[in-house]
Specification:
The protein is built from 18 helices and 14 strands. It is of the alpha/beta class. Strand 1, helix 2 and strand 2 form a beta-alpha-beta unit. It is elongated.
């Protein structure tokens, strides 16, 4: 393009009226500043006319750049001349966004073809109603692809928006909650997103369907779980959030707590008949293996993350790990409780006596500290006797102690914990006396809290995952 302008410039300077027709002129930015300068000088000196076209949502920023609205990717060292040297009329040709209008456009442009409603919907999905893309698709089968779905990890804020669009419509007024306005303008300008003035959407609907497949459980479990977690922390439901979020976050707990690697994590099933069987998490389709020797089992799985159940039920504690002292025959348990929800949610203090009166653990209120701890003590009351029963033959003198319960949540819980533990020291929780006597439990265990969204991004998730749950 630069060479063509240079060849035509003498004609314009010799008072010949030259009509310059340039398509996709914005491709000159940011590399060809000299050609933009030539535009300006030719327009100032002669009677030449320019018709500049581009597949951009906002071409004004290229014609009239300013510090507030400048060409994309501009750096302080590059100053673009504005083209405000004549009368410029900017005409916006908006995409066709209804099936009926698209059918009419197709019938007019291709009178020899028939376009049924379903065919028009398919054309709209792949072209977004952009005229040039409609023609290219019908004539050559070309499908515009502004970015590859496999590169989504490069655009965490676009991921935020896509997660929202999978669940519900997105009002333009809420854009800033998901991404910076500058980035959204960039994606709109480059025909990735479309803002009709009230709602934001993908310009090409097929991209949202590709994203739906990209984050499906069958395609990629990590992305699926990250999507579910992102949805819940934003306040939108989707999928089995409780189990998905628990599995997603617990996958990275071994690194946080300096445990054996996630590949060694196990699912442990106990029963009231004193049996214990395990299956490694990496072997999701495999069978459970019965374990006979308790001491060997505890030693082999020292500081290994364990998902557990007794008689098919897990109560109040999502994961545990063992610390085994073979000389003293002491097994020390540490538990993890994961609570996820909308980032704006708050965990209150609650009343412990009220929660302990609940007949079933499932009736306890997980939205308060008292309910979480009442569930946890019932969980230990189920787990510890089952472990002792399993070990009775090989370790009859086994002592089981509780070190701590780590409560990990993206909700805000600090205020609730301070209120709950106001009359106790150092977040030490006293186990219910009846449970202690009935199930031979320790007196207390320490409570350790991680709350709010920041620790998840900064402490828990690795760099290749954290962008997918990052706030804008």
């Amino acid at each position: 393009m630069s060479a063509a302008v240079s060849q035509l410039e003498p004609m314009a300077n010799n008072c010949r009226k030259v009509l310059f027709l340039f398509d996709e002129f914005t491709n000159l930015y940011p590399a060809n500043v000299s050609t933009v300068n030539q535009f300006r000088e030719i327009a100032r000196e002669g009677d030449s006319l320019f018709v500049l076209a581009a597949s951009k949502f906002n071409v004004r920023k290229y014609i009239f750049p300013s510090p507030q609205e400048s060409p994309l990717d501009q750096t302080p060292s590059i100053i673009y001349p504005d083209l405000n040297c004549g009368l410029f009329e900017v005409r916006e040709v908006r995409p066709i966004r209804t099936t009926a209008d698209l059918q009419e456009f197709c019938r007019t442009s291709f009178p020899e073809k028939t376009f049924a409603e379903e065919e028009a919907k398919r054309i709209f999905s792949f072209t977004g109603g952009v005229g040039r893309h409609i023609v290219n698709y019908i004539v050559k089968g070309d499908i515009p692809r502004p970015f590859a779905m496999s590169d989504m990890h490069r655009y965490p804020q676009l991921w935020n928006i896509a997660c929202r669009l999978l669940t519900t419509t997105m009002h333009s007024s809420s854009i800033a909650e998901y991404a910076s306005i500058h980035d959204v303008d960039h994606w709109i300008d480059n025909l990735i997103l479309f803002n009709d003035g009230s709602h934001l959407s993908f310009l090409f609907p097929f991209l949202l369907e590709e994203f739906r497949s990209f984050v499906s459980l069958e395609a990629n479990k990590s992305f699926y779980q990250a999507h579910i977690f992102q949805m819940q922390r934003r306040g939108f439901e989707g999928g089995s959030s409780g189990h998905s979020n628990e599995d997603f976050l617990c996958r990275y707990m071994p690194t946080l707590f300096d445990l054996a690697s996630h590949e060694r994590s196990i699912h442990m099933r106990l029963s009231s008949t004193a049996s214990l069987s395990i299956r490694h998490f990496s072997d999701t389709a495999g069978d459970f293996t019965d374990i006979d020797n308790a001491e060997e089992f505890f030693a082999a799985h020292h500081r290994t993350l364990v998902k557990w159940s007794v008689n098919g039920t897990e109560t109040g504690i999502d994961r545990i790990w063992f610390e085994w002292d073979g000389d003293k025959k002491v097994l020390t348990l540490t538990g993890i409780r994961v609570k996820t929800g909308c980032d704006r949610s708050v965990i209150t203090s609650g009343v412990l006596s009220t929660q302990r009166k609940k007949k079933r653990a499932s009736d306890c209120d997980d939205a308060c500290v008292a309910g979480i701890l009442s569930k946890a003590e019932r969980g230990f009351a189920a787990l510890i006797p089952a472990l002792k029963a399993f070990a009775q033959q090989s370790i009859p003198s086994l002592t089981v102690d509780i070190n701590a319960l780590h409560i990990c949540t993206n909700k805000h819980a600090t205020g609730g914990f301070k209120l709950f533990f106001a009359k106790q020291d150092d977040f030490e929780f006293q186990i219910d006396e009846t449970l202690r006597a009935t199930h031979d439990l320790p007196t207390s265990f320490e409570c350790i809290l991680r709350d709010g969204p920041d620790w998840i991004e900064k402490e828990l998730l690795p760099r290749d995952v954290s962008p997918f749950v990052k706030n804008p």
